[in-house]
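Q: Predict the assembly, please.
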Amino acid sequence: MEESALRREDKKVVAVVGAGLVGALNACFFAKRGFEVEVFETREDIRKAKVVKGRSINLALSHRGRTALKHVGMEDKQIVSKGIPMNARMIHSLSGKQSPIPYGKKGQYILSVDRANLNKELLTAAETYPNTKLNFDHKLQDWSAETGLMTFARPHGSKTQTQADLIVGCDGAFSAVRKQFLRRSRFNYSQTYIPHGYMELTMRPRNGEFAMKPNYLHIWPRNTFMMIALPNLDKTFTCTLFMPFEEFEKISTGDEVIEFFQKYFPDAIPLIGAATLRRDYFRLPAQAMVSVKCSPYHIGDKCVLMGDAAHAVVPFYGQGMNAGFEDCIVFDEIMNQFNEDFSAVLPEYSRVRVPDDHAIADLAMYNYVEDKNYNNSYFFVFINTLIQQTEKIGKNNHFDNMVTFTRTRYHVAVERWHWQDKVINRGLLLGAVGAAAGGFYLLI
Amino acid sequence: MEESALRREDKKVVAVVGAGLVGALNACFFAKRGFEVEVFETREDIRKAKVVKGRSINLALSHRGRTALKHVGMEDKQIVSKGIPMNARMIHSLSGKQSPIPYGKKGQYILSVDRANLNKELLTAAETYPNTKLNFDHKLQDWSAETGLMTFARPHGSKTQTQADLIVGCDGAFSAVRKQFLRRSRFNYSQTYIPHGYMELTMRPRNGEFAMKPNYLHIWPRNTFMMIALPNLDKTFTCTLFMPFEEFEKISTGDEVIEFFQKYFPDAIPLIGAATLRRDYFRLPAQAMVSVKCSPYHIGDKCVLMGDAAHAVVPFYGQGMNAGFEDCIVFDEIMNQFNEDFSAVLPEYSRVRVPDDHAIADLAMYNYVEDKNYNNSYFFVFINTLIQQTEKIGKNNHFDNMVTFTRTRYHVAVERWHWQDKVINRGLLLGAVGAAAGGFYLLI
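A: Predicted assembly structure:
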């Protein structure tokens, strides 16, 4: 790495704000190009933290994300070896019957990876570049799109300032960098919270082994409720229960938890354990899910947003992290194309990437359909139609493959899928969600 | 007013943030109920200002707005007498031919009113209540949804604090009150800038008389461009030119202005005057237009958003001010219903009003259609179909009447109009925007 680090005489400074997944990966991309990289993170170093707070425990890594990791030489060794392949979804019916629906073509799979471990590996990888410095406990307070000057709050009330040639906002769905964008004219922005919340529950190993078949993404589709479970290396499963906040709030005692699971997820009770369920359901309140879209992603030649800061998506397509990682590749490709000239790279990045990120945000939301005929309830329609279509045509369709197993641009994948027609179908079919004869063909 | 002012022993304090149209009207509504009303405005008192900066010069006042003014006893005397009735649109073809299309039923009209005059009248009306105090040069910096404590910046760097039982955010499309909402979980928000900008030009009287027929809203529909003109009491017309920012930017010399008008609005050149056009086009840059939607409108029992702060709309339906004024009536009705108990009134206000404000925001935008077949240009489709349909059926339709001449809830008007069908039509017809055979039937 010495060579690339010394490529320039007057090294430009790139400040990456946020040391989460996309921030840490981006630091590697910029360091590899020889920039002076400074990463700023509000929280402490998660590699030293006793408790890692926050987001979901595991994630589905698929083709786009793996391709980005490969770009910085760390796909296989640290990541893939620690992920668990999921070759298919495993659908749990109310009666307890389990039916697999494979992903893509034979041999294709997605990987269940541990978020915290992936983040730690990425931070360590970034730190191996001598031209990268990680700064934790730095909370961005203010920055200038004109000068690149940033002000950070430090613990115990002190402040510090740094100037950069480029500020890369990778600070997540509630981005502090993005606040400055919101103050400017002609910046389009939306944040949409869905009426569902989510809650994570752990399913421990039984007799030292996985409590269910490990190489599957387990799904309990129940129309307005849904539970999924992803396998972890320690032979636990992380179960995620999705349901409307008002339903979460109806349950206030251990008995009510068991009653609820008896009704909707009876086969999961012995697997998770009734005592665990009674206790863990009340450990943390249900968490909100937000979809964020904005445009453009840049201001002048000084600042660009990437990852969740630019496009937080709901988790129903398993593409959030993959889209964020792909952002890094797309930016990198445009850097080559425009010879690292930020004044040309940044507008081109917005032009190229906005339609794709908007497409994946819409796709992720598209699985989740409001039905005015059913008291405006939201349904997870995709899984029903997935089951129906798989039964009918015997295999997964091409569209799903494009999104999950290729780098076909998201908006092109959507166009090929005759999006327009489907939207119209969706309008026409809204009354028939339960039976969903339509063309939804999506996917966790 | 003494009587109502003294209705309570322990008067609650209502802080209205923003002394624009909706803020000033709202102050009257709250004062009439006997609250201690404090109005806070960033700018100086426009009644004393030498130059009134900012927004459009005149506005179309219709039924909803007039009803709200009537509630505080000031419809006719100060406002209607100073407005100019517009009984019809007057369509200017490229050849200079003028054809009227009436509003609503015979005798129905909308009023062209002067924004600054209306605002001044409303401020003076608010001040006649002894329980109302207007505070200018107060810029809201921070406030607490828990305590109702607000901090204002004053001129020359000083600060002041005030506490209120209810904070009413009427501070417009770029609301400072709303910023606090954005920091809270489960607040849905979108701001969408359209690719068109607008520019105002003045058409002076000719020989002491209006240069065109006064009792019309004059419209020059040109697909992706549009100009409108509203009459003023001083016998001028305010012309507003709508066009994509990139088109505005193409014109950089006086000759280019004239060339452009020759091509698209030839009959307007002698009316505005070539010399005036050459000069005034460059007076101010084209202004942006934003559509803002959010939900909910309240936090707890302490704060509520109304007017543009809650729902800025694009101007193509002439309902922005009318919707904001109607907010005041709806809130007032709910205050009666729940006996002024803010903890019940505020959630009910959000529940009732959000769908209507979202409906009018969508309607206003619906006139403005992107066509991917024409290089993603945006077209003003409504006016073409308005002309076609009027020619075909010989009269205006019922839907338009409901929106402009009744208080039918916006979302109900939309439902009656078989919105869903039209959306599907719109999808199908998008390729045929030029000919727009479809069901668009809207209106300035």
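The longest strand of chain B covers residues 188-203. The radius of gyration of chain B is 22 Å.
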